[in-house]
Design goal:
The chain is mainly α. It contains five helices and no strands. The protein has helices spanning 4-32, 37-63, 83-110, 114-144, 148-166.
């Protein structure tokens, strides 16, 4: 059975994951509207991944006889200055997710909730990957700068990456 503090924190993280999914979907739309379909496919895959993360937490709450409390999700930003700005926002989101997951892991430890810590270990490992791809994309877009050919090559690269991960 979940302690109330842990249940509340898990519900808050569930909301964070759903918010991230919505943000990535807004980023998908931004790329689609600019015919950057590779980046759009990549962000759509990220949106789905965040939705799956939310469901892991959702299931964990129920597995521990807790109560899910779904909360409103704020409207995500949908206007960006550039592809780099989109990926910078994604990178900031992932760093925020990492910080909140670490805080939740710490809270679970302080409350001797080893089952929640075990579940969160998967998220901790996942966040290393999540931050890595976001930071890499920002760096590559810095290198590409205003070169449209480089931007199109990156768009194709991220489209292929999304297709590869989907397979």
């Amino acid at each position: 059975m979940l302690k109330p503090k842990i249940e509340d924190a898990l519900n808050a993280q569930l909301n964070e994951e759903q918010t991230a999914a919505q943000e990535y979907l807004a980023m998908t739309a931004w790329f689609e509207q600019r015919n950057l379909r590779g980046f759009a496919s990549f962000m759509r895959a990220q949106a789905e991944e965040e939705r799956q993360h939310a469901l892991k937490i959702f299931d964990h709450i129920f597995d521990r006889s807790g109560h899910v409390q779904l909360k409103s999700i704020a409207e995500p930003a949908s206007d960006f200055d550039s592809p780099r700005a989109v990926f910078e926002a994604a990178y900031e989101r992932e760093k925020g997710n990492t910080k909140s997951i670490h805080a939740l892991y710490r809270l679970a430890g302080e409350n001797d909730d080893y089952a929640t810590q075990a579940m969160l270990q998967w998220f901790i490992t996942e966040q290393v990957e999540e931050e890595r791809w976001a930071e890499e994309a920002v760096g590559l877009l810095d290198v590409a700068a205003d070169n449209r050919s480089a931007l199109l090559m990156l768009d194709a690269r991220y489209g292929a990456k999304a297709a590869e991960e989907g397979a």
